[in-house]
Amino acid sequence: MHDVEATVARVLEGVLGAQRGEPAWRRDAKGGMSGWYRLGNPEEIPMVARALAGLEARLSMVSAYLVPSPQNAIGREIAYHFDLDGSTLTLTLELPLEGARVPSLTQVYRNADWQEREFRELYDIEVLGHPNPGRLFVDRSLEPALFERLIPYSTFINGANGERLWREVQAAQEEVAP
Amino acid sequence: MHTCKVPPLPKLRLYRINTGSCNGCDVELAATEAITRFGLDRLGLSFTADPTQADLVLITGPLTVSSREKVLAEYAEVPDPKITVLIGVCPISGGAFRDSYAVVAPLDEFVPVDLNIPGCPPRPQAIVAGIAKAVQLWRGGEHPPVSPGPEEGSLTENLRGRMRYRAEACVGCRICQHVCAGGAIRFDEEEAGLGFTLWHNSCLFCGMCSHYCPTGALAPTREWDLAHRQAEKYRQVEKGVVPRIPCSACGVPMLPVVPELMKKGYRALSAETARLQTLCSECRQVRSLEGVKRCTT
User: Fold this and answer.
1) Mutating which of A138, A148, A156, A161 best tests the B interface, going by the most B Cβ atoms within 10 A?
2) Contact yes or no for A93/A77 (Cβ under 8 A)
3) Best exposed site among A47, A144, A163, B255 by fewest CB in 10 Å?
4) Does B203 touch chain A (CB under 8 A)?
5) Pairwise CA distance, residues B194 & B275, whole Å
6) Which chain B residues are within 8 Å of A160, Cβ to Cβ?
7) Tens-digit pLDDT profile for residues A9-61
8) pTM as predicted
9) Taking the CA of residue A145 as centre, how many other CA atoms within 13 Å lie in the half-sphere pointing to its CB?
10) What are the residue boundaries of the structural domains of chain A, listed by start?
11) What is the pLDDT of residues A94-138, one digit of tens each?
12) Which residues belong to CATH 3.30.70.3270 in chain B?
């Protein structure tokens, strides 16, 4: 077994217990390792983060997102991406659509400060124990959870425009048609 | 001796309103005004900074939530009768900003519009041609067209202009709809086949549809004069239908496999590959597997 796999397995077992299993690891064409692991509840993330900080892991990014279905979001998740000397480990945390709460990692990783403030502005997620819970970039006049109310630009530019004007176009074609 | 002189027509005065545009159309409008070879001065016009003195109103940009009140107040200062001209797809349909929380489009829901000059932005030549039509409208259509037309060599080589669609080359992959930044392309299942519609009043002339089309079914035409009366707004479309044909083996209706795609897949057409063109995907797999069996036995 590769060193990083064994080290992470030992740390997770120490924090969460042996019965929880190990991350799924992949190796890319250049030998880079990436591990994927799903956490059980929000309380586990600070415990695991502290243990990974003990391994000198770096928190490289935190991504919050809605889990889509064809019609509506069916849940939400946060992916915490760690770097362990060139290998990546992603810890995914499932959260409910209503009343999502997650403990802050800013006391463990200072760079979590901006990332947590960002996702609490964009999504309906409460961050517990954040030392600096002010707005990061969205104007104070706007309510939080913007991405759950407004159209993300990435969706917008894929032609996800409303139907109203298209109905006018179709009606005009029907007038022209004999 | 008595000489009878016909008095010259009074100069029409143009007033510009920017509702919150990216300034692309405003740059083109400034170029239209400043560069004499585009011929705006030959139309007998002058710009005014006083809305109460204006006859024609030129509006650029999508009407934003923040600017709405001021824009409408300024527009109301222009005395009636007046001709209102929308420049660029933003005021006409909202363009790339349609359905944004910050935009209240289209503008014709708030002010009466006479003429639209689509584009993103329209070229100076298109703006001049559109304003010429507006002048004609103002003068009751009694005068002959006053468009000076573009001078030779005044159009750039990389001008794209209106897109043209060829249904006979389309495979219905819908990549054009996916990459269209303005949401200007739609596919609809119709009785006759797969219907394609491109609405020029939302098209940004970006050329992404043509760039990504694997079979060249969409191509730029360099046609730049798309100015039209407001009544024609929703009729400015490029349309086509890809008819479904029955699979020659199982009879299931299918989109035809066009020669452009076959050339990409097989480089050169042969009698064998030509037979595959009339088969649906499942029958094509069966036929291909039979070929493999023949080769291995």
Assistant:
1) A161
2) yes
3) A163
4) no
5) 23
6) 99, 183
7) 999 999 999 888 899 999 988 888 999 999 999 999 999 999 999 999 999 99
8) 0.63
9) 12
10) 3-144, 152-178
11) 999 889 999 999 999 999 999 999 999 888 899 999 999 888 877
12) 162-222+232-243
- How far separated are the first and last CA of chain A, in Å rounded? 73
Topology of domain B12-139, CATH: Rossmann fold (3.40.50)
Question: Taking a contact as any Cβ pair under 8 Å apart, which residues of chain A between 5 and 34 contact chain B?
Answer: none
Instruction: Say whether residue A162 is in contact with chain B using an 8 A CB cutoff.
Output: yes
CATH class of A3-144: alpha beta
CA-nearest of B42, B37, B35, B14 to B146 is B42
Of A85, A91, A88, the residue nearest A33 (C-alpha): A88
CATH 3.40.50.12280 in chain B, residues? 12-139
Taking only residues 125 to 154 of chain A, the set having a beta carbon closer than 8 angstroms to any beta carbon of chain B reads: 150-151
The reply to whether residue B99 touches residue A161, judged by beta carbons under 8 angstroms, is yes
- CATH code given to domain B162-222+232-243: 3.30.70.3270
Q: What share of chain A is helix, strand, coil (3-state, %, to 5)?
A: 35, 30, 40
- Distance, in angstroms, between A177 CA and closest chain B CA? 11
B14 and B47 in contact (C-beta within 8 Å)?
A: yes
- Nearest Cα to B278, choosing from B236, B249, B235? B249
Q: Helix B24-34 vs helix B124-138: angle between axes, to the nearest 10 degrees?
A: 70
Contact in structure between B238 and B170 (CB atoms under 8 Å): no
Q: Give the nearest partner residue to A165 out of B93, B101, B180, using CB atoms.
A: B93
pLDDT band at A1 (very low <50, low <70, confident <90, very high): very low
Which two structure tokens, joined as six digits, stand for A32? Answer: 């880079």
Residue in this structure with the two tokens 């945390």, named with its chain if needed = A93
Is B180 within 8 Å of chain A by CB? yes
Give one DSSP letter per residue of B197-266, joined into a string: EEETTT-----HHHHH-TT--EEE-------EEGGGGGG-EEEEEEE-EE-TTT--EE----HHHHHHHH
Exposure of A65 by Cβ count < 10 A (0-12 exposed, 13-18 middle, 19+ buried)?
A: middle
B26 SS3 class: helix
- What the block records as the tokens of B174 is 């819908």
Contact A159 B93 (CB under 8 A): no
